[in-house]
């Protein structure tokens, strides 16, 4: 310890080195006291040591490192040591005064000879016992928890290289594994004990026991006592093996016991550095510097010496070799402090020592050297006549059967297959769908273009990323914002103000609209059921299909002005004769939508429009027997369908059947052929009700569905009918149950519990008003005992969506109705310690009053102390649920409240458009004041960059402000809809929805609040996020950068097209492309494989149970991925129109986008004119690389570089020198359907010339050339893609990132390490990808099951007897393995494929195995440049390895065996 302290004092000083010097000084002082204790064995000294250590621990500061010696001393008789290692006492000499002991060594072979050169044993005095076990304790007071320590137990005893005897405790209590390179065993010499309380360590009795084990020998003193009895008391009796030691490094133990504790103290110093958060390379470098000083001290001693013994010469030689090896190892580590200067100094010192040893004429005598030096000399010596390591195969080579694939002396390109013709990627013009419709013609145009775009996306799902998100966002935008919703049927101004009743309609338009609505519903259900589920998306998808259903109903009720449809006339009641109108019930949508999360105001108002329309249906139809499509009540058609189908058959002369289900399903196509609108309308309504299924089991599994999978196939189950002569007068034919199948043949059943339906029916009476407040509670409360048991064991039916966090019963885990019930809750949640019991009880009390919860909870979280609690995801969900769940819906003409306070009927507290709208209409000041306080307090949390502790709270407050701002703007725009022409298109019909009227004073408060919020967001929040994203990209924290970009785009969610400027367009476009490239959108499954020429999919689509595919409460972005896609869908057309209208600004915006994506922008900390988001041009007019930047090197100089095992990350600055080329001019491609696809002027001529048709060119080749291969650099504003050198930069497939070979190089997938790639070459058997900025390529091979297995040339057969068929050792080594895999009989014939020698042999065989192809999954092979390996488990042949120097994908099964010459 004293020598190490001197060496530390001579090393270059730093804060870390000074701290280690102080620790060693204390350590040497304690060691001195311990040595006196061992020498005297005086209990008084034992007490003094315990007091000294407790005082030192008590005075230690945060992050201070303390080194404390420890260990145990077995009985002097050695009775606790196994018999074959027990000491044999020899006779003692009375003149010496101490006993000599002969200690036989457990080693065999050469090592045993080295240890016993003169006789049976070694002579050791009692003062230096080999059986004493020393360990070192490293203590650090935690900075985050000052009353707790981290205690590390360092045990570097190697047990002379043996693992069968473990009286030192390393193999039993420390993790162990085989080395991946040498197959030697590695240990974690350090085991950490976390969260050790201070009162434990300052207890002198504990240290009294520790040093009693070391000073007073006893037969029970062993590793089990120390590890299992003493150490477990440090942290609450936790077993030593239950303590994770993630910081500990894997080491190969020395081949001897650490008697001097030198190795242990060095490892303690290394781990001490790790405990203060020093990188592993720095920790190893510190010890290397100390070793250099020790060698320099030896150099000074040798320089003064006149002679040197052979033992000292061997020690110096071994020290130089070990130090040189350690220097080379540490210098190669990333971030190592061992630089060129230190390496030169080390080389100079080693040469001086070695030369001085030679000058003194001392020979290296291995027999006289210490054990560690002798072991090193044995392994490096070439004397003795034996084979040297350089002439032998690598030790453990048989454990690496694929090592031959490192060879580069033979090509494997012929195995890659031919080049794949690039698929044709057709342009997708999402902005071709108009944002405004004026009449039926433009409405059909909008629907038809949306259908065209969705078809292109569906057919190219394997080529275009995130097609399901794009389709859902587009169709939701079209159905809730573009296509007008009908007004209630009995509204007085409906004939003039309702879009669907104010103009005449032709029959062809009516039929076309119904067909388009049915196809839109099919595409939407296909995409929606392929995505992960969130509460907001569940609300949006049901509402979208509900909008399609009421639009279809409004269209069907119109009587065509040219050739009216009899089906339409009978359905609307407009037919001649005694006919009455028909309609359909909304089911339980009024109850389901109470708990739906509508974070956008137009969705909340659209919900009211849908419910009001259904309520008007009930008032117009009146007769419940005329309600159709009650699929949720029965799987048969009802009286309404019977009557409607009967009237149609009578009208057209079709036979009236006793079982008209065959007309309804189309099994008898007569009626459906004449009136296809019947089937179209039926499918639209069924889709709407199917998505309301109460359980996830009723919905199809999550997988990459195609639109054709969503096509409903109707049939009916035949039911026997009595013959006519056996019927009674009142006999009626039994109904045929309906069967609806879709999604790979799954039968879709919409089944509600009888309790919910009975409650609904009993309260609704004759009108479809939906005013049922407790239907869901009745459904849950009346479950059977068997259902409760299934739910308890996890086998019950799971709900369609996660429960609402606004319900206090969900939070506490038991039924809670009133504030009194909160008092009886025994265990209140603490939300990870963010709320104390008082605040939690207060919050839960607020939740029991839904009508008042909005202002109360906003005021609750507006306080500074509670605002920080919003870092908890569950609390954010609670506040979101309270703000954006509409609660009870108030139907038109509802009964007036009775005036009782508090009311006994919750329906009296219902609102037309939701609680948030009601609060903003009636009391906006309270909401505004609370949000102002929350925003002010949240902005104070800004630390200058993204912080995982404060950023979630700050970003959540910003999102909440933007969302509430949208609700306020909706009210303001509603009252200005008739005067301002710049209003959103949806305001033309949503403004007519009831329940949104405000008085002038309220409007003034709302306008002032919106203005104040927008100023703070633009002037404070936006620059703050811009700084954050700059720091994140410079530090290569791409996960954080994705979160910030999403919120930068989210700030512009409520901006209208007339308010778009350069900064807004640049931010939206940059965020969309950056997220596309760097963010892993996991809301949708893997895309479906393409359809081959044979009409079958080229691969298998894997399905996931919908219950296991529910998204987390808070996604990584902080909000649902569907929500950010909706923001882009809303502004896509407006942003492209802005780019087209502003030629001068367009080029600078697109150049800024390219600079951001390729990390070639300016990165000064104070650059407020950063082109990334500010939208203002930079001073130097910088540009990207002018098209010269390749996909694999675009960010090579700026991205993070990773290499080596374990995923060690090398971070470098992402700000690179920018080009001085002039700014390019960008323009859209001049081709139909290519709007929004921008290319620079350097490629405009190439694209224009590509339109010409070459002689003898086929249409396929021409189309591929003009759409796919003609463009090299492109910014696609439609899909948010950036193309460079004809290859789109994209995120690497997660399946490749999870392959074991890839993990060995880059580490496991991590959200903060986004790996981008671009295609280099694609062939039939191999996909070659360049990793952007990683200086690595990935070659992804397909397993070839069609290769013919060729047996290598057999030189001689192998016989189990081994007589005359090779060396005897082969049989001894290989026979147990062969019998284990192939049985006793020699059924499989092995042959030697090369002449065997005494240490190495290669055998080969062909083993055919019958495998069921239906259960074989395609495992892929992967080659990683620099560390290339593959996984060939998908081969139908049984490959047991290959170590005979083979290369490329294996051609046959090979087994390599090797004699262990060590």
State the secondary-structure class: alpha+beta
The helix fraction, in percent, is 40-55%
Our estimate of the beta-strand percent is: 5-15%
Number of helices: 48
Layout of helices and strands, plus pairs?
Layout: H1 2-10, H2 15-40, H3 43-59, E1 65-72, E2 88-89, E3 101-103, H4 109-115, E4 122-124, E5 133-141, E6 148-154, H5 170-173, E7 176-178, E8 185-188, E9 190-197, H6 198-201, H7 204-215, H8 223-230, E10 250-251, H9 262-275, H10 280-304, H11 310-331, H12 340-359, H13 371-380, H14 440-459, H15 467-482, H16 494-497, H17 507-528, H18 535-556, H19 566-572, E11 583-584, H20 589-592, H21 601-621, E12 627-628, H22 639-652, H23 661-665, H24 670-674, H25 677-690, E13 713-716, E14 738-742, E15 746-747, H26 754-764, H27 775-781, H28 785-792, H29 808-812, H30 819-822, H31 837-847, H32 853-862, H33 864-867, H34 873-884, H35 915-922, H36 924-939, H37 951-974, H38 987-990, H39 1000-1034, H40 1038-1050, H41 1062-1078, H42 1121-1141, H43 1143-1157, E16 1201-1202, E17 1209-1210, E18 1226-1228, E19 1237-1240, H44 1244-1249, H45 1259-1269, E20 1274-1276, E21 1281-1284, E22 1287-1288, E23 1290-1291, H46 1294-1297, H47 1300-1306, E24 1316-1322, E25 1326-1331, E26 1337-1341, E27 1356-1357, H48 1368-1382, E28 1391-1392, E29 1400-1405, E30 1421-1424, E31 1427-1428, E32 1453-1458
Parallel strand pairs: 11-12
Antiparallel strand pairs: 1-5, 2-3, 3-4, 5-6, 6-9, 7-8, 8-10, 13-14, 14-15, 16-17, 18-19, 19-20, 20-21, 21-22, 23-24, 24-25, 25-26, 26-30, 27-28, 28-29, 29-32, 30-31
Helix pairs in contact: 1-2, 1-10, 2-3, 3-7, 4-13, 9-10, 10-11, 10-12, 11-12, 11-13, 14-15, 14-17, 15-17, 15-18, 15-42, 17-18, 17-25, 18-21, 18-25, 19-22, 26-27, 32-36, 35-37, 36-37, 36-39, 37-39, 39-40, 40-41, 41-42, 41-43
């Amino acid at each position: 310890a004293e020598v190490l302290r001197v060496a530390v004092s001579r090393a270059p000083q730093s804060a870390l080195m000074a701290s280690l010097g102080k620790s060693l000084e204390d350590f040497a002082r304690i060691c001195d006291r311990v040595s006196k204790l061992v020498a005297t064995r005086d209990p008084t000294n034992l007490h003094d040591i315990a007091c000294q250590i407790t005082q030192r621990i008590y005075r230690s500061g945060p992050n201070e490192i303390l080194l404390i010696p420890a260990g145990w001393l077995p009985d002097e008789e050695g009775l606790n040591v196994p018999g074959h290692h027990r000491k044999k006492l020899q006779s003692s000499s009375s003149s010496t005064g101490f006993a000599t002991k002969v200690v036989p060594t457990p080693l065999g072979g050469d090592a045993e000879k080295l240890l016993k050169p003169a006789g049976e044993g070694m002579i050791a005095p009692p003062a230096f016992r080999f059986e004493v076990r020393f360990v070192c304790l490293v203590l650090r007071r935690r900075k985050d928890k000052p009353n707790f320590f981290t205690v590390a137990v360092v045990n570097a005893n190697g047990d002379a290289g043996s693992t069968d005897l473990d009286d030192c405790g390393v193999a039993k209590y420390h993790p162990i594994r085989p080395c991946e390179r040498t197959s030697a065993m590695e240990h974690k010499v350090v085991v950490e004990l976390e969260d050790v309380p201070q009162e434990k360590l300052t207890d002198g009795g504990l240290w009294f026991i520790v040093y009693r084990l070391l000073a007073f020998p006893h037969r029970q003193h062993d590793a089990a006592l120390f590890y299992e009895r003493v150490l477990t008391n440090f942290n609450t009796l936790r077993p030593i093996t239950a303590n994770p030691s993630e910081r500990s490094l894997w080491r190969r133990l020395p081949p001897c016991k650490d008697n001097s504790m030198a190795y242990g103290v060095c490892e303690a110093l290394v781990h001490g550095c790790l405990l203060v958060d020093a990188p592993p390379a720095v920790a190893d470098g510190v010890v290397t510097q100390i070793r250099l000083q020790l060698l320099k001290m030896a150099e000074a001693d040798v320089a003064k010496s006149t002679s040197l013994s052979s033992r000292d010469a061997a020690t110096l030689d071994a020290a130089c070799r070990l130090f040189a090896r350690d220097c080379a190892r540490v210098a190669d580590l990333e971030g190592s402090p061992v630089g060129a200067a230190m390496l030169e100094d080390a080389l100079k010192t080693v040469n001086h020592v070695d030369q001085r040893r030679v000058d003194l004429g001392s020979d290296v005598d291995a027999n006289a050297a210490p054990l560690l030096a002798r072991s090193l000399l044995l392994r490096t010596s070439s004397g003795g006549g034996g084979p040297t390591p350089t002439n032998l195969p690598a030790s453990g080579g048989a454990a690496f059967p694929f090592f031959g694939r490192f060879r580069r002396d033979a090509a494997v390109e012929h195995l890659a297959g031919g080049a794949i013709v690039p698929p044709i990627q057709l342009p997708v013009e999402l902005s071709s769908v108009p944002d405004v419709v004026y009449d039926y013609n433009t409405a059909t145009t909008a629907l038809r273009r949306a259908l065209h775009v969705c078809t292109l996306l569906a057919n190219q799902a394997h080529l275009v990323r995130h097609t399901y998100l794009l389709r859902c966002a587009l169709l939701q935008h079209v159905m809730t914002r573009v296509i007008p919703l009908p007004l209630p049927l009995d509204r007085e101004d409906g004939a003039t103000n309702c879009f669907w009743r104010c103009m005449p309609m032709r029959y062809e338009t009516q039929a076309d609209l119904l067909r388009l609505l049915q196809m839109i519903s099919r595409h939407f259900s296909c995409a929606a059921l392929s995505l992960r589920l969130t509460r907001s998306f569940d609300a949006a998808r049901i509402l979208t299909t509900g909008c399609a259903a009421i639009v279809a109903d409004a269209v069907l009720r119109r009587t065509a002005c040219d050739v009216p449809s009899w089906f339409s006339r009978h359905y609307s009641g407009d037919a001649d004769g005694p006919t009455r109108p028909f309609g359909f019930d909304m089911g339980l949508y009024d109850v389901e939508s109470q708990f739906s999360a509508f974070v956008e105001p137009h969705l909340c108002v659209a919900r009211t429009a849908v419910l009001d329309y259904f309520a008007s249906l009930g008032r117009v139809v009146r007769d419940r027997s005329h309600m159709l499509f009650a699929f949720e009540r029965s799987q048969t058609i009802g009286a309404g369908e019977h009557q409607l189908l009967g009237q149609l058959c009578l009208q057209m002369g079709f036979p009236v059947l006793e079982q008209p289900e065959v007309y309804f399903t189309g099994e008898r196509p007569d009626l459906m052929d004449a009136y296809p609108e019947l089937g179209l309308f039926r499918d639209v309504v069924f889709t709407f009700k199917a998505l309301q299924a109460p359980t996830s089991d009723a919905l199809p599994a999550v997988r990459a569905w195609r639109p054709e999978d969503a096509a409903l196939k109707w049939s009916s189950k035949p039911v026997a009918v009595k013959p006519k002569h056996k019927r009674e007068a009142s006999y009626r034919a039994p109904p045929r149950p309906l069967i609806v199948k879709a999604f790979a043949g799954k039968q879709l059943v919409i089944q509600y519990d009888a309790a919910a339906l009975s409650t609904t029916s009993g309260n609704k009476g004759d009108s479809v008003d939906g005013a049922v407040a407790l239907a869901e509670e009745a459904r849950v409360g009346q479950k059977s005992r068997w259902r409760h048991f299934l739910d308890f064991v996890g086998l019950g039916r799971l709900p369609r969506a996660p429960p609402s966090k606004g319900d206090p019963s969900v939070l506490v885990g038991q039924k809670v109705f009133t504030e009194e019930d909160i008092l009886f809750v025994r265990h209140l949640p603490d939300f990870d310690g963010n709320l104390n019991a008082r605040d939690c009880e207060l919050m839960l009390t607020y939740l029991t009053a839904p009508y008042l919860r909005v202002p109360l909870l906003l005021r609750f979280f507006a306080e500074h102390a509670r605002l920080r609690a919003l870092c908890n995801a569950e609390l954010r969900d609670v506040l979101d649920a309270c703000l954006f769940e509409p609660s009870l819906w108030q139907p038109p003409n509802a009964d007036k409240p009775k005036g009782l306070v508090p009311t006994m009927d919750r329906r009296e507290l219902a609102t037309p458009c939701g609680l948030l709208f009601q609060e903003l209409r009636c009391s906006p000041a309270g909401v505004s004041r609370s949000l102002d306080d929350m925003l002010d307090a949240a902005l104070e949390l800004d630390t200058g960059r993204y912080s995982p502790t404060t950023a979630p709270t700050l970003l959540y407050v910003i999102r909440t402000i933007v969302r509430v701002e949208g609700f306020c703007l909706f009210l303001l725009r509603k009252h200005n809809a008739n005067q301002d022409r710049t209003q959103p298109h949806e305001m033309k019909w949503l403004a007519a929805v009831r329940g949104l009227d405000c008085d002038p004073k309220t409007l003034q408060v709302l306008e002032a609040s919106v203005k104040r919020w927008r100023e703070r967001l633009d002037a404070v929040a936006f620059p703050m996020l811009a700084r954050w994203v700059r720091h994140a990209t410079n530090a290569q924290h791409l996960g954080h950068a994705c979160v910030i970009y999403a919120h930068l785009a989210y700030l512009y969610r409520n901006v209208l097209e007339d308010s778009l400027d350069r900064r807004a367009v640049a931010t939206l476009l940059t965020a969309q492309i950056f997220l596309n490239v760097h963010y892993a959108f996991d809301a949708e499954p893997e895309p479906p494989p393409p359809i081959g020429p044979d009409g079958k999919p080229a691969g298998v689509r894997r399905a996931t149970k919908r219950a296991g595919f529910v998204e987390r409460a808070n996604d990584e972005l902080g909000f649902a991925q569907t929500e950010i896609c909706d923001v882009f869908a809303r502004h896509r057309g407006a942003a492209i129109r802005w780019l087209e209208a502003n030629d001068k600004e367009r080029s600078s915006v697109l150049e800024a986008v390219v600079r951001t994506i390729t990390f070639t922008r300016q990165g000064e900390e104070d650059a407020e004119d950063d082109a990334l988001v500010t939208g203002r041009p930079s001073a130097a007019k910088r540009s990207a690389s002018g098209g010269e930047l390749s996909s694999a090197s675009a960010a090579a100089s700026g991205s993070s570089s990773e290499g080596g095992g374990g995923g060690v990350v090398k971070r470098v600055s992402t700000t690179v020198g920018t080009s001085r080329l002039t700014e390019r001019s960008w323009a859209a491609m001049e081709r139909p359907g290519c709007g929004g696809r921008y290319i620079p002027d350097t490629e405009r001529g190439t694209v224009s010339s590509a339109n010409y048709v070459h002689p003898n060119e086929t249409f396929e080749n021409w189309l591929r050339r003009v759409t796919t291969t003609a463009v090299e650099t492109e910014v696609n504003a439609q899909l948010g893609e950036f193309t460079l050198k004809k290859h789109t930069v994209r995120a690497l497939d997660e399946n490749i990132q999870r392959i074991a070979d890839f993990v060995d190089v880059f580490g496991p997938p991590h959200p903060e390490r986004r790996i981008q790639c671009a295609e280099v070459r694609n062939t039939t058997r191999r996909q070659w990808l360049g990793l952007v900025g990683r200086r690595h390529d990935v070659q992804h091979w397909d397993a070839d099951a069609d290769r013919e297995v060729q047996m290598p040339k057999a030189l001689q057969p192998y016989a189990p007897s081994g007589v005359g068929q090779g060396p005897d050792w082969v049989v001894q080594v290989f026979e147990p393995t062969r019998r284990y895999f192939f049985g006793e009989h020699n059924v499989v014939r092995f042959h030697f494929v090369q002449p065997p020698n005494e240490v190495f042999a290669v055998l080969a065989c062909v083993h055919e195995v019958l495998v069921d192809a239906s259960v074989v999954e395609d495992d892929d092979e992967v080659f990683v440049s620099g560390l290339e390996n593959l996984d060939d488990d998908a081969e139908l042949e049984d490959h047991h390895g290959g170590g005979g120097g083979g290369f490329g994908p294996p051609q046959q099964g090979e087994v390599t065996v090797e004699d262990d010459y060590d």
